User: Which sequence fits this backbone?
């Protein structure tokens, strides 16, 4: 299963969690308190975020805290890469089609 | 040299731009965007088959396309056609039907500018309802269900397995 920054930010709740932890270090329960959804749901999101390497959970004293991993987040800088790839391949096909249309104009006419 | 696809998605705004030049006159590029037979030849993701459920290509018309993967998953999307101004401009809405709730509509304006030497500059501006909508669609590639690792099935499996 895909576990990278893109998977991490694909979900709106996870984006909010990232945003929250980027500004303050919180316990998983502290994170859950900021959302209307169940603690269980938030805990799943936190698990995914840890697996994606976006956050780490460390023990300080008795409590576990969520920490943001800023370096990992930098990977999102090129978050447009996949989207660009989709359009690139699509437009490449369009290029070929346009060549065909220009060399054989009869066939390009709608039926 | 191959024409480059430029994507502009500034931080903190609800819009994005897709810009590309083509070595063909805009009448032809426009036609490739509106003629159903031609659309089928390029618009669908490469690993999926594309179907046109309906396409009423006129100002005030509407459309619905379906992308189907090899394992039978279908990704539908539809919209209203606000303006067809051949060969300059096309304005329409876009809604991906695979989202958990309705209403995440995108407003798309495609502008076809004539360049010297029978070339064309295409600019697609997409305006989303929120920044989260835009970022979500771009980051997940969900719009097209193209990427195996990104597709809805993975999302579903993930919800059940994690």
Assistant:
């Amino acid at each position: 299963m895909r576990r990278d920054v893109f998977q991490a930010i694909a979900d709106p709740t996870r984006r909010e969690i990232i945003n929250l932890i980027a500004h303050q270090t919180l316990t998983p329960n502290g994170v859950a308190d900021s959302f209307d959804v169940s603690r269980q749901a938030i805990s799943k999101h936190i698990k995914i975020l840890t697996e994606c390497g976006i956050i780490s959970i460390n023990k300080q004293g008795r409590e576990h805290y969520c920490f943001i991993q800023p370096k990992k987040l930098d990977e999102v800088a090129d978050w447009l890469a996949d989207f660009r790839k989709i359009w690139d391949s699509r437009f490449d096909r369009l290029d070929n089609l346009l060549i065909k249309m220009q060399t054989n104009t009869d066939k390009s006419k709608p039926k | 040299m191959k024409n480059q696809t430029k994507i502009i998605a500034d931080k903190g705004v609800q819009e994005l731009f897709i810009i590309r030049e083509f070595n063909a006159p805009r009448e032809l590029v426009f036609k490739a965007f509106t003629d159903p037979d031609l659309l089928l030849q390029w618009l669908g993701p490469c690993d999926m088959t594309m179907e046109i459920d309906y396409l009423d290509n006129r100002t005030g018309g509407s459309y619905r396309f379906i992308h189907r993967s090899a394992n039978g998953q279908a990704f539908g999307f539809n919209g209203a056609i606000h303006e067809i101004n051949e060969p300059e401009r096309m304005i329409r809405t876009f809604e991906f039907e695979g989202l958990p709730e309705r209403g995440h509509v995108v407003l798309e304006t495609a502008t076809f500018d004539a360049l010297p030497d029978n070339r064309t500059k295409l600019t697609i501006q997409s305006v989303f309802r929120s920044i989260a909508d835009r970022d979500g669609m771009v980051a997940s590639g969900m719009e097209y269900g193209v990427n195996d690792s990104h597709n809805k099935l993975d999302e579903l499996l993930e919800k059940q397995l994690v």
Notes: Chain A has a mean pLDDT of 82. The first helix of chain A runs from residue 5 to 9. Residues 82 and 88 of chain A are 10 Å apart (CA to CA).
